[in-house]
Every structure is written in C-alpha cells, then in structure tokens.
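Two entries, shown back to back:
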Amino acid sequence: MKQSYLETIRLIERLHRRFLDVIKTELDRLGIEDINNVQTLILSNISSEQLTVGELTARGYYLGSNVSYNVKKLVENNYLTQERSPHDRRMTRVKVSQKGLELCERVDALYQKNAMELARDVVNEDQLASTNEVLTSLERYWTNYITYSR
C-alpha cells in the first residue's frame, strides 16, 4: 500500500506539472506572451466570479508561485480588474476583464478539445469519475489529518 500511495503522490505532482505544460503549449500556439501558464490557470479558476486573493489561493494550487504577485501581473496586463471592498478597505476583490474573458474562452475550448480526445482515445467518463472519487477521498484524508491530528 505504501508504494502505491507514494506513486499516487508523485503522479499527482507530475500530472499538475504536465497540465501546466499543456497550457503553456497552447499559449505559445496562440502567440500569447504577456501571461504565463500559472497566471492562465488562475484566470481560468476565477472565470466569471469575483474573488479575494485568499479565496483564489484556496481554490487552486499554483505550482511555485505567489498568488499575490501573479494577481498583480494579471492586473498590470489587463487580464484582471481589482477593486477595494467598500466595507473593508484592506480587502481587494478581483474579476476577469474583457481581455481575460477572451482568453478564458480560448482555454475553455482547449479543455473541451482535450476532453473529446480523452473520451475518444484514452479514458471514458466513468473512469474519470472514479478517479475523481479516489482523489477527493485522498484530499479529505489529508485535510482531516492536518485539521485533527495535532
């Protein structure tokens, strides 16, 4: 069991890195140079919502990155707009700009293409659902371990 557990952990990490490579390849194909793959993933995770940096951090895992720095770069390159909360001036909320929404649509098209190719050649939806159940259980186990094992 230990070997399988460790292999799963390594696969999760490698898959995330490989997924970022997929996004980078698509950005290169589209000729987009003012945003990187991690920033694109952040943008995609915000989508049509309005979030704080803390909410954004909790929502996704951004390999080797500082979310605040990436949000700053996304605002500078006009992919995000940032507004201070009227109730708490220390808190800012971000939302995707029109430029960002256009990129989100392109990334969503990539996801759709990937999903169709996976379904045709690699795995079916039931297999992915089963994998997601296992990964969700692993996440729940780790969360409980962190929260209750002290």
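entry 2 starts here
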Amino acid sequence: MRRKRQRRLMLLILVPVFVLLGFLTNISFNFFSAGYQTEKLVNTFYTLEQDGDFSDSWELLHPYMKDRWKKGAFIQDRAHVFINHFGAETFQFTVIEGDRIDGWSMSQDLPPVDSAYQFTVTQTYQGKYGKFSFIQEVYVAEDNGEWRILWDYN
C-alpha cells in the first residue's frame, strides 16, 4: 500500500514537471528561433519607418545595404518619397513570412549570404493621391551575429 502511494505521489509530481519543461522548451524555441527573431526585426524596421524614424531604421540595415545607401541619403530619400511626395504622413503594414533561403545574394555583384529569411511586406498609404499599397520582398541575414535587413536588387 505504501508503495502505491509513493508511486502516485511521484506521478503527481513528475507529470506536471514534464509538462512544464515541455512548455518552457517550446516557448524558448519559438522566442529564440531565427524565424521569430527575423520576423521581429522586420516588424521593428517598419514600425520605425512608420514613425518616420528613418535614422534608427537605417541602423537595422545589413552592411551591403549601408554601402548602397549612405545614412543621410537614406533618411532624406525615404522621407521625401513616402512622406512628402505622396502626401502620406504614415502607413500601415503587414508582414508575411516566406522561406529560409540558402546562398541568397542581394545583387549579382555581391557575394551571397549563407542563409536569408524572406518576407513580403505590404505598406498601405492614404495620401493626396488616395489609398495605395507597396509590396516589397524583404530579406534578413546575419552579419557578425546580428540580424540585418536587405532588399533584392537582382
């Protein structure tokens, strides 16, 4: 009888412990996975752009992009085209996750990155020309341990 009680007690303790461990493993895998981190970066980038904070959004660009767009030119161009030219003060956006791509290259004249994560971003504006949307393929690749934004120039 005493052994049965001990087994029941052990089961009552071990089952919740294993369930909790499984739950914590699942959460940590999702929050620390590359897919989660890269999607979070894309959302952060476009939230900064949405707020007109082009200086901080530029900081999230991959070095290949920073070579293509110097900071001052990037800030001025983004503000001019999307805010001033189209008469839109801000925009809404949606992010659709794509696939992981190995050996992807931003342009033909640059070496490929080991792997990139592809996203489709739709920015919707309400401006002086009415409502319109831009759809852009966005890629995220690692550079020195940090995830960074890239666009496709092929």
